[in-house]
Design a protein that fits this description.
The chain is built from eight helices and no strands. It is an all-alpha fold. The protein has one domain. Helix 2 packs across helix 7 (131-156) and helix 5 (67-95) packs antiparallel against helix 8 (161-191). The longest helix is centred in the last third of the chain and has 31 residues, at 161-191.
Length: 200
C-alpha cells in the first residue's frame, strides 16, 4: 500500500494525498512499517560503499574505510535519521497553529514520512563511489521531495492554498536547518569519537 501511495502522490498528488489522509496513519505505524526500514537505506548503502567499493572525491585514488570504523558511523547515522524524522514532524506540528491548521501530530508524521521517502531512497546512490552521480541523484530527490511537500501540505494540514504555500516554505526552511545541524554534529563526531579509519 505504501508503494502505491508513493506512486500515486507522484502522478496524481491531490487525490492520493486525500486517500492517505483518510487512512489515518498513526505515528507508530509510520515508524514501524516505513521509517525504520527507509532510514536504514542510506547508512547501509554508505557502509557498503565506503568499506567494499571505496570512495574517490576527485576521481583519483579510491579509499576504503575499515569495517570497525564505518560500522559505528553507520549505526549513528541510522539513529540520527530516525530522530530527524520525528524532529521534523514535531516542528511541523509546532508551526501548524500559525497557519491555521488543526492537524494532529500523526498527520504531521505522515507528511514527514511521505515527503522524506525520496531522500531515503536516494541514499542507495551511496553504493556508487562516484561523487557527481551521487550529487545528481541527491538533487533529483530534493526536487521530488519539494514537490511532494508543496502538494501535500494543503491536503494533510488542511490549510487554504495561500497559507499552504507559506507553510510549505517554512517547513522547507526548518528541514534545511535540521539537515545543517545533523551535518554539524557529524563533523564534530568525526573529529572526536567516531573518526573514520582508512583501510590499508
Amino acid at each position: 500500500m505504501f508503494i502505491e501511495h508513493m506512486l500515486g502522490v507522484l502522478y496524481h498528488p491531490n487525490d492520493e494525498w486525500k486517500s492517505i489522509r483518510e487512512e489515518h496513519y498513526t505515528t507508530l505505524r509510520c515508524y514501524a512499517s516505513h521509517i525504520v526500514f527507509l532510514a536504514a537505506i542510506p547508512p547501509l548503502a554508505a557502509f557498503i560503499g565506503t568499506t567494499q567499493m571505496g570512495w574517490s572525491i576527485g576521481g583519483g585514488n579510491f579509499f576504503r574505510l575499515t569495517v570497525a570504523s564505518a560500522l559505528p558511523i553507520a549505526i549513528a547515522f541510522y539513529f540520527a535519521l530516525l530522530a530527524g524524522a520525528g524532529i521534523m514532524a514535531w516542528f511541523i506540528h509546532w508551526m501548524k497553529n500559525t497557519y491555521g491548521s488543526e492537524s494532529s501530530f500523526d498527520d504531521c508524521m505522515v507528511l514527514t514520512t511521505f515527503t522524506a521517502t525520496p531522500l531515503f531512497l536516494a541514499g542507495l546512490s551511496a553504493l556508487i563511489p562516484i561523487l557527481w552521480v551521487d550529487v545528481l541523484v541527491g538533487m533529483a530527490a530534493v526536487a521530488v521531495t519539494i514537490r511532494l511537500l508543496y502538494t501535500g501540505v494543503p491536503v494533510l494540514m488542511d490549510v487554504p492554498e495561500g497559507r499552504a504555500l507559506a507553510f510549505s516554505s517554512s517547513i522547507l526552511t526548518v528541514g534545511l536547518v535540521v539537515l545543517v545541524g545533523m551535518l554539524a554534529v557529524t563533523a564534530v563526531l568525526w573529529g572526536t569519537v567516531m573518526g573514520p579509519t582508512v583501510s590499508a
